[in-house]
């Protein structure tokens, strides 16, 4: 067992995959940290994030809409708040692969929550505008149990056909995010299956592809350039390189690099291990980063999810039982 005297903890905010209102709705409605943060978010965007998220839950096109992103951000940070208050967790650094970097920079103190909400809403608008004009057919697809040589084989076949593709994420051995055109997605999925791999979900808008350099420039000019990023109070692990960030310039660069540099979770794990981290608290809905072999073989993993943090329901006694 790890000596508690030398145990060090990191908080990890997961990337945003598909998540359902039914999984987090009660937490958002009843948890005091979530209610406080939702009130702030509502004031920033001018509508009820909770109501809009609830109403659009069954709409696949709203899966990564601005209000859904803000709801996810709120859940993750509220769970981290709860873990501090209830479990006594005191992380010494934080990390946030993919969308999780926004919660990480907020938790670390580089951006106030209200500013991150505004940033999220404005970036959602920026991305939607970009992908209406550029790379209109691009998606990002998740594959697992696919050895690198088999993935390269499938990608080489796309090359032979003149089809564009980028690797957008390195999650674990045999676990990748691949960006490509939606018209060839079914054929690519079939080929992955033939090569012994397994297909997970597909994301739109697409993410982290080197081909999206123009989106990075647009985001810097129209959105991120207008935000004042502070030095983090906690070190932040960059999700593109595993670099340990301790100043505002590094955090700002990470926020921009998310558009056109792939995420590298193994590098992040290596950095946390080198910093003496022995336990990671994964704050938020997660079906990837806290579960892959690279993580569970390296750290004690504590999943901080909405089910753990919900207040127990108080059942009223019936009038008969109350003696009335």
UniProtKB/TrEMBL annotation:
It catalyses: holo-[ACP] + malonyl-CoA = malonyl-[ACP] + CoA. Gene3D superfamilies: Malonyl-Coenzyme A Acyl Carrier Protein, domain 2 (3.40.366.10). It comes from Streptomyces antioxidans. The keyword Acyltransferase applies. GO terms for molecular function: [acyl-carrier-protein] S-malonyltransferase activity. It comes from the Bacteria. This is [acyl-carrier-protein] S-malonyltransferase. GO terms for biological process: fatty acid biosynthetic process. The lineage of its organism: Bacteria, Bacillati, Actinomycetota, Actinomycetes, Kitasatosporales. Keywords: Acyltransferase, Transferase. The keyword Transferase applies.
